[in-house]
């Protein structure tokens, strides 16, 4: 029994639906080359039927001498495409396009036709486009940065305190400034009130009885002083920590803390002081560390001509 070499060799692997199969492992007269084979007839255009070897079928084949190629077709020197052509009488039905079927060792194709490459090669993974990568990186940055920003904002809100900035001069510009010594029992007196300033402190942090610790903003420092005020007139008047100002050597004026940003033990009260009533408490100022020649100032008498301002020089 004789078989066509392409239809019965282990390299004959056409794809379903293909009209032509490209075989790159054909061998004839000691030469390898490529060709196209019709899967329906399993025929090719280069060589005669031959006897299948024992490796290709398990049962022995009938004894029949193989068809010998005419000696004129055997290559005698360097292989050329011409010896690869089989005799016309043994050629099977030629394919519709015989020109591409002629191949030689020099023109051996290195890959299958383009339409077969997606089927034989590995499937390439689909990646992200340029805009997809930009969106992905942006999303990752937001995912990482947003929680960090929220945590920082919460921590900063719980620990930060407002920076005390100089205010416009609340004291009369044409006032007469009268200085008094710092000390309990040393009074600055007007017609309806008398004021005493004592126990000044300059500290970088403090702790209240509840255990909470306060620190000033960077570059700032706390100034404390205890103030006593007594109504010696016949009419009530309003008093508060903001009536007491701290003035530095450059003329900057800082108002006593009244907004409650800092909790202070024994804070000076805010309210109306009745005749003969007396109040006492601590007042806090937040000023730059570089401030010098600080003075506590209080408008002692607005109605006098000119107005009278009482001042106490702090010891720093």
In short:
Helices cover 12% and strands 27% of the residues. The chain is α+β, with helices and mostly antiparallel strands. A hairpin with a 6-residue loop joins strand 14 and strand 15.
Shape: rod-shaped
Secondary structure category: alpha+beta
Number of β-strand runs:
15
The tally of helices reads 3
Q: Output the CATH topology of the largest domain.
A: Immunoglobulin-like
Sheet with the most strands?
Answer: 5 strands, mixed
State mean pLDDT (0 to 100 scale): 76
Number of domains: 2
Low-confidence stretches: 69-73, 103-107, 112-120, 156-169
Distance between the termini: 122 Å
Strand content range:
25-35%
How helix-rich are the residues, as a percent range? 10-25%
Summary keywords:
Immunoglobulin-like; single chain; 5-stranded mixed β-sheet; 4-stranded antiparallel β-sheet; 27% strand; 2 domains; 316 residues
């Amino acid at each position: 029994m004789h078989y066509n070499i392409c239809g019965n060799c282990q390299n004959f692997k056409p794809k379903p639906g293909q009209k032509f199969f490209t075989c790159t492992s054909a061998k004839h007269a000691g030469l390898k080359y490529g060709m196209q084979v019709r899967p329906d007839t399993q025929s090719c255009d280069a060589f005669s039927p031959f006897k299948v070897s024992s490796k290709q079928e398990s049962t022995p084949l009938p004894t029949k001498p193989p068809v010998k190629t005419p000696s004129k077709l055997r290559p005698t020197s360097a292989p050329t495409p011409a010896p690869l052509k089989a005799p016309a009488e043994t050629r099977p039905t030629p394919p519709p396009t015989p020109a591409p079927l002629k191949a030689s060792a020099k023109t051996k194709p290195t890959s299958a036709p383009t339409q077969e490459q997606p089927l034989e090669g590995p499937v390439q993974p689909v990646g992200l486009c340029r805009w997809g990568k930009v969106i992905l990186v942006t999303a990752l940055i937001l995912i990482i940065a947003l929680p960090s920003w929220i945590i920082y904002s919460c921590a900063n809100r719980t620990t930060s305190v407002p920076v005390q900035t100089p205010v416009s001069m609340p004291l009369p510009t044409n006032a007469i400034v009268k200085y008094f010594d710092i000390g309990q029992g040393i009074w600055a007196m007007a017609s309806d009130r008398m004021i005493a300033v004592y126990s000044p402190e300059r500290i970088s942090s403090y702790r209240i009885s509840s255990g909470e610790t306060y620190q000033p903003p960077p570059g700032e420092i706390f100034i404390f002083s205890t103030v006593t005020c007594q109504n010696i007139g016949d009419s009530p008047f309003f008093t508060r920590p903001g009536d007491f100002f701290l003035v530095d050597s450059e003329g900057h004026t800082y108002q006593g803390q009244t907004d409650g940003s800092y909790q202070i033990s024994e804070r000076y009260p805010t309210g109306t002081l009745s005749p003969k009533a007396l109040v006492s408490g601590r007042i806090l100022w937040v000023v730059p560390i570089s401030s010098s020649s600080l003075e506590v100032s209080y408008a002692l008498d607005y109605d006098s001509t000119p107005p009278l301002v009482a001042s106490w020089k702090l010891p720093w």
